[in-house]
Amino acid sequence: MTDDPSEKTFCEFFAGIGLVDEALRRSGWHCRYANDIDAKKRQMYEGHYGPSPHYHEGDVWQVDQVLARIPGRPFLATASFPCTDMSLAGKRRGLAGEQSGSLFGFLQVIEQLGDRRPRALLLENVPGFLTSHDGEDFATAIHALAELGYWVDSFVIDAQWFVPQSRPRMFLVGYQSELLTPPLVVRAADVELGAVDDPWQKAIDRADRLRPARLRGAMETIEPATGWATIDCGNPRRSPQSISDVIDFGDDQPWWNQTEVDRHSAMMFDRHSRQVELLRAHGGPPLALTAFRRVREGKQRMEVRFDGVAGCLRTPRGGSAKQIVLAIVDGELRMRWMTPREYARLQGAGDYALPTNTIQALFGFGDAVCVPVIEWIDRHMLTPVFEGSKRGVRSQRSGAINCPAAVT
Ligand SMILES: C[S@@+](CC[C@H](N)C(=O)[O-])C[C@H]1O[C@@H](n2cnc3c(N)ncnc32)[C@H](O)[C@@H]1O
């Protein structure tokens, strides 16, 4: 059994088109095993990375088959498990739903790995995970990680801090006790909540954008059998990029004809039409906006965003999930569907090798993680913890672990 803790190895569960890998490989992580049930996602993955024998196309619930294909002991396992049941569209069945409940398949694999259990885990889902079943699903996941020996952390990152796409996502990280060396700090059991000299509390307070009030409340009330652990990494900086930076304005783009532009213009709310007219009159460099079609009070509407970011990319199930681009070039208003290349850029993977099938590409990217978000988590949490583990200094569980200088 290979068990070399000095290697940055990981397994990517719910791998889809492999954007977790896209982020982690940039700092030297090696994917030893990837798993997803969807043949079309695998096709995209291999179209981009080339033949990938480590990609196991299969159901995570086929635990024996999964276990047999994982080589050695990976340092890290990631799981961006399906969010379908965390949303209204999925009737908010939460972890009881067939899709989102596949988290338990993943946890069963982790449990049965025994002494090959990864030292760290990274889970990703939508913020609705925190509120699903009035917080019970989130608490269940935290306790399940703790039962497997992981100290836990949780935070929310919005992709729009890195790219012009609004995409808030919730993360859970788990660290085995053997990783509890600097830079990790743990919430001490004997320190009163909110104590000013508690390093864990200080780290949580400094990164206030990562943990909205409701999440902080949950972290204060849930008591995992292990404990909470975090890194004093502060808040991410905001990206100065705007949606106009990722949109193609050329005449070669699939712009709609005037009839289609007029039809969609008629779907705009009056206040949106007035704003568009002001922007057309203003002149200046080419400008892009994005919109979704929605049914509002029985009428088909086109809701336009004016805040310089695209709405959250989704899988194109139905017309309302596809994003529309509005471009103002020399005072002319143009419209079209957003292209797969623009989806890729909005996920921070602008160079990804695209399949010829547009719907396949939109499905792949609509479901994927945003690469710079995972890169940030890696730079500030995963790699520092990996480096810390190599130094191998075991921490005290008292919470009095020295914090290194905060990184930004
Ligand atoms: C949110 S997406 C993850 C996308 C991925 N992180 C990426 O960057 O492309 C969830 C993935 O879980 C996969 N999935 C759903 N149920 C599964 C199961 N039972 N076993 C394995 N994969 C499953 C879906 O096919 C989908 O690709």
Automatic annotation (TrEMBL):
Keywords: Methyltransferase, Restriction system, S-adenosyl-L-methionine, Transferase. Its EC number is 2.1.1.37. One of its GO terms (molecular function) is DNA (cytosine-5-)-methyltransferase activity. It catalyses: a 2'-deoxycytidine in DNA + S-adenosyl-L-methionine = a 5-methyl-2'-deoxycytidine in DNA + S-adenosyl-L-homocysteine + H(+). One of its GO terms (biological process) is methylation. The active site is at C83. It is an enzyme of class 2 (transferase). InterPro entries: C5-MTase, C5_MeTfrase, SAM-dependent_MTases_sf. It comes from the Bacteria. Belongs to the class I-like SAM-binding methyltransferase superfamily. C5-methyltransferase family. PANTHER family: TRNA (CYTOSINE(38)-C(5))-METHYLTRANSFERASE (PTHR46098). This is DNA (cytosine-5-)-methyltransferase. The gene is hpaIIM.
